[in-house]
Protein backbone atom coordinates (compact mmCIF):
# COMPACT_ATOMS: atom_id res chain seq x y z
CA UNK A 1 0.00 0.00 0.00
CA UNK A 2 2.89 2.32 0.63
CA UNK A 3 4.44 1.66 -2.76
CA UNK A 4 4.70 4.64 -5.01
CA UNK A 5 2.54 4.47 -8.09
CA UNK A 6 4.06 4.84 -11.57
CA UNK A 7 3.19 7.83 -13.77
CA UNK A 8 1.19 6.82 -16.86
CA UNK A 9 3.97 8.48 -18.91
CA UNK A 10 6.30 5.49 -18.32
CA UNK A 11 3.71 2.98 -19.55
CA UNK A 12 3.02 5.10 -22.66
CA UNK A 13 6.78 5.46 -23.25
CA UNK A 14 7.35 1.71 -22.82
CA UNK A 15 4.78 1.10 -25.58
CA UNK A 16 6.60 3.44 -28.01
CA UNK A 17 8.70 0.70 -29.62
CA UNK A 18 5.64 -1.54 -30.03
CA UNK A 19 3.76 1.32 -31.72
CA UNK A 20 6.70 1.97 -34.02
CA UNK A 21 6.86 -1.68 -35.11
CA UNK A 22 3.09 -1.80 -35.74
CA UNK A 23 2.44 -4.29 -32.91
CA UNK A 24 -1.21 -4.25 -31.75
CA UNK A 25 -0.83 -4.03 -28.00
CA UNK A 26 -4.50 -3.32 -27.11
CA UNK A 27 -5.30 -7.02 -26.44
CA UNK A 28 -2.23 -7.11 -24.18
CA UNK A 29 -3.43 -4.09 -22.17
CA UNK A 30 -6.88 -5.68 -21.90
CA UNK A 31 -5.36 -8.92 -20.64
CA UNK A 32 -3.38 -7.00 -17.96
CA UNK A 33 -6.41 -4.95 -16.91
CA UNK A 34 -4.79 -1.66 -17.98
CA UNK A 35 -7.30 0.69 -19.59
CA UNK A 36 -6.05 2.57 -22.72
CA UNK A 37 -8.14 5.56 -21.55
CA UNK A 38 -6.25 5.51 -18.26
CA UNK A 39 -2.90 5.52 -20.08
CA UNK A 40 -3.97 8.49 -22.20
CA UNK A 41 -4.76 10.58 -19.12
CA UNK A 42 -1.47 12.50 -18.50
CA UNK A 43 -1.90 12.67 -14.70
CA UNK A 44 -3.03 9.05 -14.23
CA UNK A 45 -0.91 6.54 -12.30
CA UNK A 46 -0.66 2.76 -12.37
CA UNK A 47 0.38 0.26 -9.71
CA UNK A 48 4.01 -1.04 -9.77
CA UNK A 49 2.65 -4.60 -10.18
CA UNK A 50 0.85 -3.65 -13.41
CA UNK A 51 3.97 -1.93 -14.75
CA UNK A 52 6.08 -5.04 -14.04
CA UNK A 53 3.56 -7.23 -15.90
CA UNK A 54 3.42 -4.78 -18.82
CA UNK A 55 7.21 -4.79 -19.28
CA UNK A 56 7.51 -8.58 -18.99
CA UNK A 57 4.66 -9.08 -21.51
CA UNK A 58 6.15 -6.57 -23.96
CA UNK A 59 9.60 -8.23 -23.84
CA UNK A 60 8.05 -11.56 -24.79
CA UNK A 61 5.64 -10.14 -27.38
CA UNK A 62 8.34 -8.08 -29.15
CA UNK A 63 11.07 -10.71 -28.58
CA UNK A 64 13.30 -7.83 -27.50
CA UNK A 65 14.52 -6.75 -24.04
CA UNK A 66 15.24 -3.29 -25.52
CA UNK A 67 11.53 -3.01 -26.45
CA UNK A 68 12.32 -1.69 -29.92
CA UNK A 69 14.43 1.27 -28.74
CA UNK A 70 17.89 -0.18 -29.52
CA UNK A 71 19.74 -0.41 -32.83
CA UNK A 72 19.11 -4.16 -32.78
CA UNK A 73 16.91 -6.39 -30.59
CA UNK A 74 18.23 -7.96 -27.38
CA UNK A 75 16.78 -11.48 -27.19
CA UNK A 76 14.80 -12.25 -24.02
CA UNK A 77 17.12 -14.12 -21.68
CA UNK A 78 20.14 -11.90 -22.45
CA UNK A 79 19.86 -10.06 -19.13
CA UNK A 80 19.51 -13.34 -17.22
CA UNK A 81 22.53 -14.85 -19.00
CA UNK A 82 24.59 -11.73 -18.18
CA UNK A 83 23.61 -12.09 -14.50
CA UNK A 84 24.69 -15.76 -14.52
CA UNK A 85 28.02 -14.66 -16.02
CA UNK A 86 28.77 -12.24 -13.18
CA UNK A 87 27.20 -13.87 -10.10
CA UNK A 88 30.41 -15.68 -9.07
CA UNK A 89 32.67 -12.61 -9.29
CA UNK A 90 34.71 -11.70 -6.24
CA UNK A 91 33.53 -8.10 -5.86
CA UNK A 92 31.31 -5.47 -7.45
CA UNK A 93 34.04 -4.06 -9.69
CA UNK A 94 34.71 -7.47 -11.28
CA UNK A 95 30.97 -8.10 -11.61
CA UNK A 96 30.25 -4.78 -13.35
CA UNK A 97 33.21 -5.21 -15.68
CA UNK A 98 32.08 -8.71 -16.62
CA UNK A 99 28.50 -7.56 -17.15
CA UNK A 100 29.59 -4.69 -19.40
CA UNK A 101 31.95 -7.04 -21.27
CA UNK A 102 29.02 -9.41 -21.87
CA UNK A 103 26.97 -6.70 -23.61
CA UNK A 104 30.01 -5.41 -25.55
CA UNK A 105 29.99 -8.78 -27.38
CA UNK A 106 26.88 -7.55 -29.23
CA UNK A 107 28.07 -4.88 -31.73
CA UNK A 108 24.68 -3.11 -31.86
CA UNK A 109 24.12 -3.02 -28.08
CA UNK A 110 24.08 0.37 -26.27
CA UNK A 111 27.61 1.14 -25.01
CA UNK A 112 28.14 1.36 -21.25
CA UNK A 113 31.52 1.99 -19.62
CA UNK A 114 33.02 2.38 -16.15
CA UNK A 115 35.67 5.04 -15.40
CA UNK A 116 37.48 6.13 -12.24
CA UNK A 117 37.52 9.83 -11.37
CA UNK A 118 39.78 10.11 -8.30
CA UNK A 119 37.72 8.62 -5.44
CA UNK A 120 34.61 8.41 -7.63
CA UNK A 121 33.53 6.08 -10.37
CA UNK A 122 31.29 7.00 -13.29
CA UNK A 123 29.04 4.60 -15.17
CA UNK A 124 28.49 6.19 -18.59
CA UNK A 125 25.99 5.37 -21.31
CA UNK A 126 26.43 6.33 -24.96
CA UNK A 127 22.80 6.93 -25.96
CA UNK A 128 23.59 9.04 -29.05
CA UNK A 129 22.65 6.28 -31.55
CA UNK A 130 19.45 5.04 -29.91
CA UNK A 131 15.95 5.54 -31.29
CA UNK A 132 14.59 6.59 -27.91
CA UNK A 133 12.38 9.71 -28.21
CA UNK A 134 11.06 9.47 -24.61
CA UNK A 135 14.49 8.40 -23.21
CA UNK A 136 12.85 5.23 -21.90
CA UNK A 137 15.77 2.91 -22.72
CA UNK A 138 18.39 5.40 -21.46
CA UNK A 139 16.58 5.80 -18.13
CA UNK A 140 15.96 2.06 -17.87
CA UNK A 141 19.59 1.06 -18.47
CA UNK A 142 20.95 3.50 -15.88
CA UNK A 143 18.33 2.49 -13.30
CA UNK A 144 18.82 -1.25 -13.93
CA UNK A 145 22.62 -1.14 -13.61
CA UNK A 146 22.45 0.98 -10.44
CA UNK A 147 19.87 -1.25 -8.77
CA UNK A 148 21.50 -4.48 -9.97
CA UNK A 149 24.78 -3.31 -8.41
CA UNK A 150 23.00 -2.45 -5.15
CA UNK A 151 21.30 -5.87 -5.07
CA UNK A 152 24.59 -7.69 -5.70
CA UNK A 153 26.30 -6.16 -2.65
CA UNK A 154 23.19 -6.15 -0.47
CA UNK A 155 23.10 -2.40 0.11
CA UNK A 156 21.91 0.67 -1.73
CA UNK A 157 24.65 2.39 -3.72
CA UNK A 158 24.34 6.07 -2.91
CA UNK A 159 24.40 8.16 -6.10
CA UNK A 160 26.29 11.46 -5.99
CA UNK A 161 25.14 12.73 -9.39
CA UNK A 162 23.18 11.70 -12.48
CA UNK A 163 23.80 13.42 -15.83
CA UNK A 164 21.72 13.26 -19.00
CA UNK A 165 22.69 14.04 -22.57
CA UNK A 166 19.30 15.69 -23.20
CA UNK A 167 17.32 18.63 -21.75
CA UNK A 168 15.03 18.03 -18.76
CA UNK A 169 12.03 16.11 -20.15
CA UNK A 170 8.37 16.88 -19.43
CA UNK A 171 8.29 13.99 -16.92
CA UNK A 172 11.42 15.32 -15.16
CA UNK A 173 9.51 15.68 -11.87
CA UNK A 174 9.47 11.85 -11.67
CA UNK A 175 13.26 11.63 -11.76
CA UNK A 176 13.58 11.83 -7.96
CA UNK A 177 12.08 8.30 -7.90
CA UNK A 178 14.61 7.01 -10.41
CA UNK A 179 17.74 8.96 -9.48
CA UNK A 180 17.61 10.28 -5.88
CA UNK A 181 20.62 12.63 -6.26
CA UNK A 182 21.61 15.97 -7.90
CA UNK A 183 20.65 15.92 -11.61
CA UNK A 184 22.41 17.60 -14.56
CA UNK A 185 20.61 17.86 -17.92
CA UNK A 186 22.00 18.73 -21.37
CA UNK A 187 25.33 17.20 -20.28
CA UNK A 188 28.01 15.71 -22.56
CA UNK A 189 26.85 12.20 -21.68
CA UNK A 190 24.32 10.26 -19.64
CA UNK A 191 25.97 8.82 -16.54
CA UNK A 192 25.79 7.94 -12.84
CA UNK A 193 28.49 8.96 -10.34
CA UNK A 194 29.11 7.06 -7.08
CA UNK A 195 31.93 6.47 -4.60
CA UNK A 196 34.59 3.93 -5.59
CA UNK A 197 34.43 2.24 -2.15
CA UNK A 198 31.45 0.20 -3.38
CA UNK A 199 33.61 -1.44 -6.07
CA UNK A 200 35.63 -3.40 -3.49
CA UNK A 201 32.56 -4.80 -1.72
CA UNK A 202 32.00 -8.56 -2.02
CA UNK A 203 28.93 -9.97 -3.76
CA UNK A 204 26.38 -11.21 -1.22
CA UNK A 205 24.22 -13.02 -3.79
CA UNK A 206 24.57 -16.49 -5.30
CA UNK A 207 22.90 -18.83 -7.82
CA UNK A 208 20.06 -19.55 -5.39
CA UNK A 209 19.14 -15.90 -4.72
CA UNK A 210 19.70 -15.08 -8.41
CA UNK A 211 17.02 -17.60 -9.46
CA UNK A 212 14.40 -15.79 -7.36
CA UNK A 213 15.69 -12.37 -8.47
CA UNK A 214 15.37 -13.26 -12.17
CA UNK A 215 11.75 -14.34 -11.87
CA UNK A 216 10.75 -10.68 -11.90
CA UNK A 217 13.83 -8.81 -13.12
CA UNK A 218 14.77 -6.53 -14.66
CA UNK A 219 11.10 -5.38 -14.71
CA UNK A 220 10.99 -5.22 -10.91
CA UNK A 221 14.11 -3.06 -10.84
CA UNK A 222 12.26 -0.46 -12.91
CA UNK A 223 8.89 -0.66 -11.20
CA UNK A 224 9.97 -0.39 -7.56
CA UNK A 225 10.81 3.29 -7.09
CA UNK A 226 13.94 3.96 -5.02
CA UNK A 227 12.88 5.68 -1.80
CA UNK A 228 16.44 6.79 -1.18
CA UNK A 229 17.52 8.72 1.90
CA UNK A 230 16.22 12.19 1.10
CA UNK A 231 14.12 14.07 3.67
CA UNK A 232 11.07 13.63 1.38
CA UNK A 233 11.55 9.84 1.44
CA UNK A 234 11.97 9.75 5.22
CA UNK A 235 8.84 11.87 5.61
CA UNK A 236 6.88 9.62 3.30
CA UNK A 237 7.85 6.55 5.33
CA UNK A 238 6.89 8.35 8.53
CA UNK A 239 3.50 9.47 7.19
CA UNK A 240 2.66 6.06 5.74
CA UNK A 241 2.85 4.34 9.14
CA UNK A 242 -0.65 5.47 10.02
CA UNK A 243 -2.66 6.97 7.19
CA UNK A 244 -5.80 7.16 9.34
CA UNK A 245 -4.24 9.80 11.63
CA UNK A 246 -2.24 12.25 9.56
CA UNK A 247 0.19 14.21 11.72
CA UNK A 248 0.55 17.92 10.94
CA UNK A 249 3.80 19.56 9.91
CA UNK A 250 4.60 20.68 13.47
CA UNK A 251 4.21 17.13 14.84
CA UNK A 252 6.40 15.68 12.08
CA UNK A 253 9.08 18.36 12.65
CA UNK A 254 9.10 17.48 16.37
CA UNK A 255 9.56 13.77 15.52
CA UNK A 256 12.52 14.66 13.31
CA UNK A 257 13.94 16.99 16.02
CA UNK A 258 13.98 20.07 13.75
CA UNK A 259 11.94 23.26 13.69
CA UNK A 260 8.92 23.56 11.34
CA UNK A 261 10.74 26.39 9.50
CA UNK A 262 13.81 24.18 8.89
CA UNK A 263 11.58 21.32 7.68
CA UNK A 264 9.79 23.65 5.22
CA UNK A 265 13.11 25.01 3.95
CA UNK A 266 14.65 21.54 3.40
CA UNK A 267 11.56 20.33 1.56
CA UNK A 268 11.61 23.47 -0.60
CA UNK A 269 15.27 22.71 -1.47
CA UNK A 270 14.16 19.22 -2.57
CA UNK A 271 11.50 20.81 -4.77
CA UNK A 272 8.48 19.70 -2.75
CA UNK A 273 6.30 20.64 0.24
CA UNK A 274 4.62 18.88 3.17
CA UNK A 275 1.20 19.18 1.51
CA UNK A 276 2.53 17.80 -1.79
CA UNK A 277 4.06 14.76 -0.07
CA UNK A 278 0.83 14.14 1.83
CA UNK A 279 -1.20 14.39 -1.39
CA UNK A 280 1.13 11.99 -3.24
CA UNK A 281 0.81 9.44 -0.44
CA UNK A 282 -2.98 9.85 -0.27
CA UNK A 283 -3.15 9.44 -4.05
CA UNK A 284 -1.07 6.23 -3.97
CA UNK A 285 -3.10 4.72 -1.10
CA UNK A 286 -6.35 5.61 -2.90
CA UNK A 287 -5.11 3.95 -6.12
CA UNK A 288 -4.12 0.86 -4.14
CA UNK A 289 -7.65 0.46 -2.73
CA UNK A 290 -9.44 1.43 -5.95
CA UNK A 291 -7.61 -1.37 -7.75
CA UNK A 292 -9.06 -3.83 -5.24
CA UNK A 293 -12.70 -4.14 -4.24
CA UNK A 294 -11.89 -4.20 -0.52
CA UNK A 295 -13.26 -0.77 0.48
CA UNK A 296 -16.13 1.45 -0.68
CA UNK A 297 -15.38 4.96 -1.95
CA UNK A 298 -16.70 6.37 1.33
CA UNK A 299 -14.41 4.08 3.37
CA UNK A 300 -11.39 5.11 1.28
CA UNK A 301 -12.27 8.79 1.79
CA UNK A 302 -12.51 8.23 5.56
CA UNK A 303 -9.22 6.33 5.70
CA UNK A 304 -7.48 9.20 3.92
CA UNK A 305 -8.83 11.72 6.41
CA UNK A 306 -11.46 13.40 4.19
CA UNK A 307 -14.52 14.54 6.12
CA UNK A 308 -16.74 14.37 3.01
CA UNK A 309 -16.63 11.91 0.07
CA UNK A 310 -17.14 14.91 -2.25
CA UNK A 311 -13.84 16.42 -1.02
CA UNK A 312 -12.10 13.11 -1.80
CA UNK A 313 -13.66 13.08 -5.30
CA UNK A 314 -12.43 16.61 -6.02
CA UNK A 315 -8.93 15.91 -4.70
CA UNK A 316 -8.56 12.60 -6.58
CA UNK A 317 -9.68 14.19 -9.87
CA UNK A 318 -7.13 16.97 -9.32
CA UNK A 319 -4.36 14.39 -8.70
CA UNK A 320 -5.12 11.98 -11.57
CA UNK A 321 -7.58 13.65 -13.97
CA UNK A 322 -10.24 11.01 -13.14
CA UNK A 323 -12.89 10.64 -10.44
CA UNK A 324 -12.44 7.70 -8.01
CA UNK A 325 -15.52 5.99 -9.49
CA UNK A 326 -14.23 6.32 -13.08
CA UNK A 327 -10.81 5.08 -11.99
CA UNK A 328 -12.28 2.02 -10.26
CA UNK A 329 -14.49 1.24 -13.29
CA UNK A 330 -11.43 1.25 -15.58
CA UNK A 331 -9.49 -1.00 -13.19
CA UNK A 332 -12.19 -3.70 -13.07
From TrEMBL:
Keywords: DNA-binding, Transcription, Transcription regulation. The keyword Transcription applies. It comes from the Bacteria. Residues 233-330 form the HTH araC/xylS-type domain. Pfam families: Arabinose_bd, HTH_18. SMART domains: HTH_ARAC (SM00342). The keyword Ion transport does not apply. InterPro entries: AraC-type_N (IPR032687), Homeodomain-like_sf (IPR009057), HTH_AraC (IPR018060), Tscrpt_reg_AraC-type_HTH (IPR020449). PANTHER family: HTH-TYPE TRANSCRIPTIONAL REGULATOR GADX, HTH-TYPE TRANSCRIPTIONAL REGULATOR VQSM. This is AraC family transcriptional regulator. It comes from Pseudomonas serboccidentalis. The lineage of its organism: Bacteria, Pseudomonadati, Pseudomonadota, Gammaproteobacteria, Pseudomonadales.
Amino acid sequence: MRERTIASHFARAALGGARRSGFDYLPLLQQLGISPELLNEPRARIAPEQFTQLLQSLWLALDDEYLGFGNAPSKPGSFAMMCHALIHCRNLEKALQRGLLFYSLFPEAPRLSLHREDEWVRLSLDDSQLWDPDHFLSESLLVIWHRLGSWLIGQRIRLEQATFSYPKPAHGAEYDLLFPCPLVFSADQSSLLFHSRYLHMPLLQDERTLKHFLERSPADLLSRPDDGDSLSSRLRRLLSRDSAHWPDLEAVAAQLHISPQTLRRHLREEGTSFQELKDQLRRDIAIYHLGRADLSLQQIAEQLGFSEPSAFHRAFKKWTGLTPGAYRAQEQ
